[in-house]
Amino acid sequence: MSLKCRKCHQPAVVNMRQHKLALCEAHYLEWLPAQTQRTIEKYHMFTREDKILVAVSGGKDSLSVWDILLQLGYHADGLTLQLGIDEGIRYSEQSHAYIEKFIRDFYPQAVLHTVDVKAAYGAALPEIAARDDRAGERPCAVCGLIKRHEMNRLAYELGDTVLVTGHNLDDEASVLWGNLFHWQIEALVRQSPVLPADRPGLARKVKPLCRFYERDMAAYALLRGIEYVYDECPFSVNASTLRNKLTLNEMEQEQPGTKMQFYAGFLTARERGLFTLPEAEQVPLAPCARCGQPTSAHGLCAFCKLWDHR
Ligand code: SF4
Ligand SMILES: [Zn+2]
Ligand SMILES: [Zn+2]
């Protein structure tokens, strides 16, 4: 017997076993933005008066979150970084083409800020990562560092801007898995749907999709007609988050709802104060001598040091 939409009893196209909820196309496209709005309100992420910058990569999650925020009436610009990951599948080029197509097809008035890392700093990601590839996961570490720095810089330059990323529940659960497995206390303290702008020079960072499964976001993009880059970044094969995702998916397969339970339990524990550091243990930050962003390093921040190793 085919599943029926809980709201209108027409045939369902999406079945979310973790919510015991099946919906037809029209009701799913209504439900997901409405749930996003609930998450935004629950965690006091931002209001319609705030300026928002969405980090877009050309993937389903970042394009969908931008789409949802614009539909919901928020003032949201896009920000993309051209990292020059262009060997083989020309990943950066493809990603950018999808972002441009999304704007053309859905929001021709939308504003996109683009940072070309090589043009701005003199080297693309593969060149920087190749200088020191001991860990195997070096490209992702460098990539994360560049993204965090540049997102913060833009948010600061545009003035009082909230940074939005498209992390979904699978992303958050796999990072949580890694953080717990290695007992990364500082990372656990900072893993949150909202990272407040609690130090001068740092923008507030929020994840409005953190309660949706990856599969549900793929369904949203498909039903909404958002085309996105399907190929994975060539460096992602080494990413430990991908391995963690596979493990969690196996557990989900055996017991639907496992990922949701794991992540939601963490959020409850956070709310009850389990993951906080006493003030005395918080790492003191000072402005970087070159770029001015807060850093725990003495002198230059890790981002500025990257460019001195040429
Ligand atoms: S897989 Fe790694 S290098 Fe590629 S975009 Fe993601 S973080 Fe960056
Ligand atoms: Zn329906
Ligand atoms: Zn710096």
Architecture blueprint of SSEs:
Elements (H helix, E strand, L loop, with lengths): L13 E3 L4 E3 L1 H18 L8 E5 L4 H12 L3 E8 L8 H16 L5 E5 H5 L3 H6 L7 H21 L2 E4 L4 H13 L3 H6 L3 E2 L9 E2 L7 H11 L15 H15 L3 H14 L14 E2 L6 E2 L6 H5 L4
Parallel strand pairs: 3-4, 3-6, 4-5, 6-8
Antiparallel strand pairs: 1-2, 7-8, 9-10
The chain binds iron/sulfur cluster (SF4) and zinc ion (ZN) (2 copies).
The site of iron/sulfur cluster (SF4) has 8 residues, from α6.
Polypeptide structure, described:
The chain has 310 residues and is α/β, with parallel strands linked by helices. The chain has two domains: 46-276, HUPs (Rossmann fold), CATH 3.40.50.620; 279-310, no CATH class. It is built from twelve helices and ten strands. The protein has helices spanning 25-42, 60-71, 91-106, 117-121, 125-130, 138-158, 169-181, 185-190, 214-224, 240-254, 258-271, 302-306, and strands at 14-16, 21-23, 51-55, 75-82, 112-116, 161-164, 194-195, 205-206, 286-287, 294-295. The longest helix has 21 residues, at 138-158. The model has no long low-confidence stretch (mean pLDDT 92). It binds iron/sulfur cluster and zinc ion (2 copies). One zinc ion is lined by residues 5, 7-8, 10, 23-24, 26-27. One zinc ion binds at residues 288, 290-291, 293, 300-301, 303-304.
